[in-house]
Amino acid sequence: xxxxxxxxxxxxxxxxxxxxxxxxxxxxxxxxxxxxxxxxxxxxxxxxxxxxxxxxxxxxxxxxxxxxxxxxxxxxxxxxxxxxxxxxxxxxxxxxxxxxxxxxxxxxxxxxxxxxxxxxxxxxxxxxxxxxxxxxxxxxxxxxxxxxxxxxxxxxxxxxxxxxxxxxxxxxxxxxxxxxxxxxxxxxxxxxxxxxxxxxxxxxxxxxxxxxxxxxxxxxxxxxxxxxxxxxxxxxxxxxxxxxxxxxxxxxxxxxxxxxxxxxxxxxxxxxxxxxxxxxxxxxx
Length: 285
Description:
Layout: E1 12-15, H1 32-39, H2 45-48, H3 74-96, E2 105-109, E3 112-115, E4 118-121, E5 127-129, E6 134-137, H4 140-148, H5 154-172, H6 175-184, H7 188-217, H8 224-234, H9 237-243, H10 258-271
Parallel strand pairs: 1-2, 2-6
Antiparallel strand pairs: 3-4, 5-6
């Protein structure tokens, strides 16, 4: 991916020194909860319900955005470039559909962080919080992605960011609120099935981003899409369960199988339009 020297987003909040925000609210949505938990043989999902609680609002200095001249290192620059690309892509896509795109903030942290969805450690991995419309990323997850999951390359990392931005898009169009409502009165099996459709749609949206960012800026290099497809495969529920030495149980899937995740990313990339990403109307995922 050709990203060096390109526009960076000003919607980065660098809290790697340790900043906190208010806790309590809607649930965390992201790929890291299941990925990191299965790597270490622990299901982290049950603890997320315990993370919601009271939390004081910390000084505003912790919430300042990073401007183009405040980039501290190459990783932060990469994240800021990818986020800027998502802003351009989704602004154009929303305009096409007669809407206005509201840009999310992306919070960089180390160790632990509090969001409007609760507290989380780095073990949770990247996540999106619908309540404060922010993406949270401990960049150490990129090392986990490459060294433990075998999903290396800058475009694999970009896919992770684009997936979380996909959740923000879902929040803006009402998908997050509606599925949260449905899951509250569903059985565990039904709730998991709804979660899979949410996650696969975010994968499809990340495919849209890949297609449109190439059309806009010509940034893709040979092997980039293969990197994203490999990452999608490596974080499929079936692959993670098998690699953790656990039985593969489809009813327990919350993000989709490797094949499904690749298929929906590819669908978004091939179509380049949101209309292609209706996972909720699809009979066959």
